[in-house]
Amino acid sequence: MTTRATRGPRRRTVVALAVILAVLGAFVVRLVDIQVVSADEHVTDSLVHIGKGNTIAGQRGSVTDANGVVLASSVLVYDAQLSPLVIRTLEDKDPKVPWTEASDQIAAITGQTGDEVRALVADALAKDENSQYAPLAKSLDTEQYIALRDLNLAYLHFESREVRVYPNGAVAGNVVGFLDGSGAAQAGVEKMEQSCLAPVNGEQTYRTGKDGVVIPGSERVVDAVDGGSVQLTINSDLNWYLQQMIAEEAQKQGAKGGTVTVVEVKTGKIRAAAEWPSLDPNDLSTITGDGWGSEIFHHDFEPGSTFKAITAAAAMEGAGLTPLSTVSASSREKFPNGAVINDAFTHPAYNYTLAGGLIDSSNVALSKFGTMVSPDVRYDYLQRFGVGKKTIDIPSEVGGTLHPVSEWDNQSLYTTTFGQYFTVTAAQVAGAYQAIANGGEKIDLSLIESCTKADGTVVAADKPEHTQIIKEQTAADITRMLENVAVQGGNAERIQVPGYRVTSKTGTAQVPDGNGGYKAGVYYTSMVGFAPVDDPQYVVVVTLDEPTKVVSSAATASAFQKAMTQVMKTYRVMPSSVPMDALLPKFE
After folding, report:
1. Model's pTM, two decimal places?
2. What secondary structure letter does DSSP report for 552?
3. Residues 85-104: pLDDT tens digits?
């Protein structure tokens, strides 16, 4: 039996438990309301910033030459600002370092005068007595930033930013390219290799409450991934020399510009792409018009006589000709279809050998040799040698123009045999002669060696395509004829490279006037060749844009000789050890 004494405590316990359960029930109901029924409303109410964060910038990769010399890189610079209001406030409280003294210390670091720094603050306060911003200096380097920071001045603030610098300035600048003010790649390798060079930015995110306090445990960090480093095939030392040389030669000849292209025969690698005027990516204000890209790749022209060698290849393989095959050719002839072809000099009818036609660069002779094969065959050989196809697909590169045979008229049926009615770039000329020098095997040109990612992984460039476009014997015969051009031609004495057997062929292209005709007495001149003949190593192409002192392709002779000589020295190519074969006769 339960006594009155025991019933009292038990009742109180039950009541207390009921109260507790009621309170807990109320909390549960409220919790369900907060977390389930009204969850969205309460979350919105309590969290002002969800996923707030900061971008963590990655660094753009560098561009180097074949030997690791940096041609483009990114550096951190600092923009400094002052707080005029803070300066004035501290001055009223007798600061440890008075403003007059501090401003002199600042100026000594930034390269300004103390008066200039003080004037910045005074002007800002004159415009707004509560001004908290006055720009001090932009693009300070790390050393200047540290020196200013160590002054420990409360009113001095900094913002860091990345800028692109080009340590070698204009050396290969037209090929390297540049970025715009926002950091976007605009030209050259900078744009061509964007996928390798561009960084992937990271991000720091976190949640904050209504009062702005970061919610513990909400912070998340995704690290930035720096861009990779691109290595080019270019030799910057050789490129520097050739740029200086072609600038001097072009100006000496009164030309608008000039280029030098060097290609390694056995690999197709571009070892130099020099031009004048040249682009310094550090100072884009010096360039106007079409100077943003590389003339070597984006300027096409009628090659003229340099492509007589390709006509010879087509005729040799398509019609069984040899260097000693002959045609009768005078300096001016009217062909059965009414076309009239002229040579650059007056001469009687000669019984030209194919070699002689190349040596004297006779348009009439090559017209006759070339038309011994069908237009379709010649068209095929022009394509084989790269006409109409881009070389490395660098931004702004053009592939030249190759009209279909159906568009060849009575005149162009013949002019296409000596480099007219189609256009090429200097790079395409280099590629064509690389094939001749390499025993008929054409190797696609290349400018990129590799991309080294931020983690050290090296991704080699795609291997270039190798194609046997003419027979090895044909290439050997054309090489022998081109050596005879160098030895017996009009520029023989001016292009000799002591100790080396050299080939050469000139080109004198008429310049379009924009109205369907040509400018009178104005030419785009070129010269191409390779050396040593007994073991071809390098192709050199030189162009001059509208020279005025000497208007023929002879204007390029001096530049070609200097370029080839320097290439042989740079790569320590062994002098020729095999003597030249007997001279080929020009006439029979």
Report:
1. 0.84
2. S
3. 999 989 888 888 999 999 99
